[in-house]
Write a structure and sequence with these properties.
Distance between the termini: 83 Å
Radius of gyration: 24 Å
Low-confidence stretches: 1-31
CATH architecture of the largest domain: 3-Layer(aba) Sandwich
CATH class of the largest domain: Alpha Beta
Shape: globular
Structural class: alpha/beta
Strand content: 15-25%
CATH topology of the largest domain: Rossmann fold
Order of helices and strands: HEHEHEHEEEEHEHEHEHEHEHHHEEEEE
Strand order of the largest sheet: 9-8-10-11-12-16-17
Largest sheet: 7 strands, mixed
């Protein structure tokens, strides 16, 4: 009898162990039509070198979710965010994408903010057939490259080629610039893509790039570069890069007496730019962007009002992009034939005339938005002028 009881106890323990394994986190939670909630993965740079982009996107996303859920959710189901910090690290972004898609049961994922980190998550999305959306990954090859279309990757921002081309046109048509200097971040796809397209368009317009200099992310000393270009004759400086280095370059350029207009792209859009450069240095500075608080569109004004009520501050473009990215995904989930990754991907791809605070857009065959671009001018570090171009 004792031997029998011992065998029976072993069998019971084995059964319990197997039951425990069946509930392991490697098995995704219910996420289809029978799920009680709609899980959306959030994979953003909430700490590390470009944390202000991720943090701003997340604020916009959370405002959108709050409003959607208050209005009854999506077809009666509330949105739940599964939020992770990829620490501004590409490998971590990949790891987190795999976790949320294989363990957390998300129907779609939003983020990361930067092109390199976002691209690192796309193979995971393709493998698991879960769409990923970025509000701010602008590299030309994000959604389509030499191998073809990335079926499960989407973005709602314009590309680097579009930004670079637009700023070259702005330099010629608005500033009457004939000669330009480029000081680019050579360590990022973002910086290289912008520089390439600005130069091509500027020269196509009849202009001349008289000097090209490079730096890498985390550099803080730019006086040697600026001393070299100071001796050249030029009308504008184009700095394709992020706010961390751009703010210091502008500050050091002005200190050397270089007062030519400075051009940039959406990587300039951070309050840290003002902290690093100082207000006095940020005059005759222009950058392409997705949104401006100076826009008088009623949709934009309502967004600003709601954002201020929640966060007690003025929203920036990355707040607006996060807000639009979440609403873009929610709109597709509501229209999807079924609550699965493939159906939501198809709904995202068929989006037409989506009305966002960063502009109205439809998704083209390469999963990019067809939309206009904003060029913002700064006066003492504060947005002072805006103009729109293209669509």
């Amino acid at each position: 009898m004792k031997k029998y009881l011992s065998v029976l106890l072993v069998l019971v323990l084995m059964t319990a162990a197997l039951a425990g394994c069946s509930n392991a986190p490697s098995q995704p939670a219910a996420s289809g039509d029978d799920a009680e909630e709609i899980k959306i993965g959030i994979n953003y740079e909430l700490s590390g070198g470009v944390a202000t982009y991720g943090q701003a996107n997340l604020e916009g996303i959370e405002l959108a979710v709050e409003q959607i859920n208050a209005a009854g959710g999506i077809n009666g189901k509330k949105i739940t965010l599964v939020t992770y910090d990829n620490k501004s690290d590409h490998a971590e972004a990949t790891t987190l994408a795999n976790r949320m898609m294989t363990q957390d049961g998300v129907l779609a994922a939003i983020g990361p903010a930067t092109s390199g980190a976002f691209k690192a998550t796309i193979p995971v999305a393709e493998k698991n057939q879960i769409p990923v959306v970025s509000g701010s990954a602008t590299a030309d090859d994000v959604t389509v490259d030499a191998q073809g279309l990335k079926e499960y990757a989407f973005r709602i921002c314009f590309s680097d080629s579009y930004q670079g081309t637009a700023m070259a046109d702005f330099a010629l048509n608005t500033l009457n610039a004939k000669k330009a200097v480029i000081i680019m971040d050579s360590s990022s796809d973002y910086g290289k893509g912008l520089a390439k397209n600005f130069k091509e368009q500027f020269e196509k317009n009849g202009g001349t790039v008289v000097a090209e200099e490079a730096y890498v992310a985390k550099d803080t000393e730019f006086n040697a570069i600026l001393t070299k270009v100071k001796g050249a004759e030029f009308d504008v400086i184009f700095i394709p890069g992020y706010y961390e280095e751009a703010g210091l370059i502008i500050k050091q350029a002005r200190a050397q007496g270089i007062d030519a207009p400075v051009l940039g792209a959406d990587g300039f859009d951070s309050p840290v730019l003002l902290e690093l450069a100082g207000a006095e240095a940020l005059n005759d500075v222009y950058f392409s962007n997705h949104y401006s608080s100076l826009d008088q569109d009623p949709l934009v004004l309502k967004f600003i009002e709601d954002f201020k009520a929640k966060y007690d501050k003025e929203p920036d473009a990355f707040n607006a992009l996060g807000y639009d990215a979440m609403n873009f995904v929610a709109d597709a989930v509501a229209r999807a034939e079924k609550l699965d990754g493939t159906s939501i991907k198809d709904a995202l791809a068929s989006t037409e005339n989506f009305a966002g605070v960063t502009g109205s857009f439809s998704i083209d065959e390469n999963h990019n938005p067809v939309k206009s671009i904003v060029v913002i001018g700064l006066k003492n570090g504060v947005q002072d002028t805006i103009s729109r171009t293209g669509e």
